[in-house]
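Input structure tokens:
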């Protein structure tokens, strides 16, 4: 009320407050001295307005106003309409009251807690409190047989608290007020309600929302703020000169129900049972309510990420499938290329096979003639058989190399020695080099060059480069036809070089020489160097070509060394 007076008044107000302590008992003797005190205090300057707050104060003013301030206007407020004696109201009086409907309060609570069997009513033992006990008892008669109503006004408050702390299950507590208990002990302010809340084992509801926000579940209640605002508005009209008797203010009813979410949660009261016009306060927002947009944003990002990851995985699978397919096609094309190369090596292979086979035949015929003689030389026969075994092994090696070159094998990475692959390849090409009058010179690194690769495909790359080098020197005289194959380690990688003494590569073709179908041969397919580049890149390496300063071309391959 003080806050509303300061807010609504356009004048500087001098507000004096007097507490009616004597109203706590039925003894009227102290009132005599109190009346004399008030008369002396305002003898020279009567109040412009008296505001009686509460029923005891209103009764006191109505009993003694003629003795104190017979002409001062009076505003009776913060009381229930039944506590005003209308027969004693003068034209200088007006009332801003409320109407208690206890049955409405109890029915409203039973609606949200339908299992309630016991309702304990906490009320004091002052004259005003005893009056309201009888009023409540009368109004709540319709609940007889539905719930048990227990009263605690005849007990000292400490004893009442002990019993209230041990209420049976499905109980509730209605807090009215506790001004004076049965032992005559005064309880000021909210201390009595705070003590009750600390021991209560049941939800607490009340009629006045002044207690709302701490210990009360809630429900339909009188609004302290709106009641004070309404009363102060009437007070301003009186101070502005309006006759109090002309101001008629109907008693206010309970405000729309409101509930404390924390207490609903504590006592497990279902929110679905709350009236449709109710308001829930102090709700702790859920993470969804508090961070809705953040959650939506993060969720959207996660969904987008999941979609992108799924798309990338799908794309990766497609790429992997394409790589596998391309690798298989490359293997097939490489195999075709090996067949083509083998065709070029036919005369060399035939020569390599004919030589050991001819030797085997000659040695066999010689051994046969010697065995027909009366005294064959067994030692010489043994030498002939050793020659036959050696020639057979030579022929077998030629066939093994050819079979390895032509057989269909999957791309398979293994730890291999680049020097060993070069050695095998040069042995395979030795016959072709002799037939073409080409000198093969090999310079291998002193240490093994261990790389991770496919033996057959790397052999094919070297074979293609060497055969191309031989083809590039057909116009040279035989002593000038030299192919050098060198291996070594450069900057932590294995490097292979194939050098020839031919006419070199035209400068404008150096960038396109590894492209598919590019060839300088009259009957070439243009796939050899393209396949070589594909194989090298599949091994994590690179291949390039340049012209030597002394003449001829140089093809170089760089491959990562195995860990």
């Amino acid at each position: 009320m003080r806050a509303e007076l300061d807010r609504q008044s356009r004048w500087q107000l001098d507000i004096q407050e007097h507490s009616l302590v004597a109203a706590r008992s039925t003894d009227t003797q102290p009132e005599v001295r109190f009346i004399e005190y008030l008369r002396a205090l305002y003898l020279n300057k009567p109040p412009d307005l008296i505001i009686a707050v509460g029923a005891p104060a209103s009764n006191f003013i109505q009993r003694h106003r003629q003795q104190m301030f017979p002409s001062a206007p009076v505003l009776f407020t913060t009381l229930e309409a039944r506590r005003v004696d209308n027969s004693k109201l003068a034209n200088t009086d007006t009332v801003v009251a409320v109407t208690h409907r206890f049955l409405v309060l109890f029915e409203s609570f039973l609606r949200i807690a339908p299992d309630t069997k016991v309702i304990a009513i906490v009320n004091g033992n002052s004259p005003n409190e005893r009056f309201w006990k009888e009023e409540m008892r009368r109004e709540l008669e319709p609940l007889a047989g539905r719930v048990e109503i227990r009263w605690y006004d005849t007990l000292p408050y400490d004893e009442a608290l002990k019993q209230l702390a041990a209420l049976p299950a499905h109980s509730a507590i209605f807090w009215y007020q506790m001004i004076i208990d049965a032992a005559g002990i005064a309880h000021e302010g909210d201390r009595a309600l705070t003590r009750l809340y600390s021991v209560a084992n049941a939800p607490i509801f009340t009629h006045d929302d002044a207690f709302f926000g701490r210990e009360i579940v809630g429900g339909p209640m009188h609004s302290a703020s709106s009641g004070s605002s309404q009363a102060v508005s009437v007070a301003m009209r009186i101070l502005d000169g309006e006759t109090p008797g002309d101001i008629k203010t109907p008693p206010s009813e309970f405000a729309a129900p409101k509930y404390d979410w924390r207490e609903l949660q504590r006592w497990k009261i279902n929110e679905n049972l709350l009236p449709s016009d109710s308001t829930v306060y102090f709700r702790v927002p859920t993470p969804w309510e508090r961070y809705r947009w953040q959650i939506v944003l993060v969720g959207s990002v996660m969904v987008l990420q999941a979609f992108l990851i799924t798309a990338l995985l799908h794309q990766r699978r497609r790429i992997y499938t394409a790589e596998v397919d391309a690798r298989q096609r490359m293997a097939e094309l490489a195999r075709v290329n090996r067949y083509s190369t083998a065709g070029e090596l036919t005369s060399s292979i035939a020569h390599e096979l004919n030589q050991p086979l001819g030797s085997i035949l000659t040695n066999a015929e010689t051994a046969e003639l010697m065995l027909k003689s009366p005294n064959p030389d067994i030692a010489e026969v043994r030498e002939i058989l050793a020659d036959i075994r050696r020639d057979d092994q030579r022929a077998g090696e030629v066939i093994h190399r050819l079979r390895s070159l032509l057989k269909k094998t999957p791309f398979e990475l293994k730890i291999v020695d680049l020097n060993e692959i070069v050695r095998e390849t040069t042995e395979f090409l030795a016959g072709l080099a002799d037939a073409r009058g080409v000198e093969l010179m090999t310079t291998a690194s002193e240490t093994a060059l261990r790389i991770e690769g496919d033996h057959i495909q790397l052999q094919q790359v070297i074979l293609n480069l060497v055969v191309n080098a031989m083809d590039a020197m057909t116009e040279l005289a035989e002593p000038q036809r030299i192919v050098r194959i060198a291996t070594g380690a450069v900057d932590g990688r294995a490097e292979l070089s194939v050098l020839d003494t031919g006419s070199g590569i035209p400068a404008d073709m150096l960038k396109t020489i590894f492209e598919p179908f590019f060839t300088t041969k009259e009957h070439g397919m243009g796939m050899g160097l393209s396949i070589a580049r594909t194989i090298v890149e599949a091994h994590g390496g690179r291949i390039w070509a340049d012209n030597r300063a002394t003449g001829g071309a140089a093809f170089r391959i760089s491959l990562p060394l195995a860990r």
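The first helix runs from residue 2 to 8. The mean pLDDT is 86.
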